[in-house]
Amino acid sequence: MAFTLSLLLLLLDIASATQCYWPNGDNATADWVPCPNSRVCCSTTEACLSNGLCYEANLNIAHRGACADHSWPISECPRICYSEVPGGWANLYPCPNNTNQVFTCGEPGWASEVCEKNIGTYSWVSGYVSYAYLPTSTATTGTAATSTSSPTSVDAVQTTPVDATSCPDTSSSNSSVAIGAGLGVGLGVPLLLSLAGMLWTCARMKRQMRAFNQERMEQQQLKGWGQGSPIPKDHLGEMDAPNPRDRVEEVHGSEPIVTELGG
Fold it and tell me: In the chain, what are the domain boundaries?
């Protein structure tokens, strides 16, 4: 009986070790897993930063994730935007009125709305920031590691320092998350994140404008002289006038009806 109880407690401890929680105590979804040798939880599509934040490369944004401890010990899980966004992850937005190292806390949404609400801020700590690739099939805590579908071990998880000039290998064939360049010296991190976001937005707008102009040109070419388009004067003479003979009507195959005037 004692052995069964001990085994049950062990299983419960293992299960709780891989569960991640939001600041308000709610359970995070299964795609939030602990970072290597940490109780900080990031999504399986993101990278873990050494300062306890998570990084989403596609959107080029850092945010506060979840914690593998329900009590959220401040020594193991950073309480960044802890009370401002208690029921989920908290994005960090570089708002126009912020100084270089200050970010505004906010839920997922439009940056302009988050900056206007200004519910709280976080000051990026200067220093050398490193990141770790987070395998999508491996969940780790400070003392245990479990693998759901991949034989990848904890030792295979890479922790690599990044400087401002390094770039990740975007053609990697493993399940690691590709992280964008620019996470390095603390003073340059917020500026680089903001600049990269602006460049990405400008590039997307240019692509959309080119596609829009190309579509308009194709529509005009296909439209030709259709309805609503003026006919060039030099082509007016090429249009055939209707032939009066075409309007002769026949009744049941008989000869055309001729009406004579005056007797």
Answer: 32-132
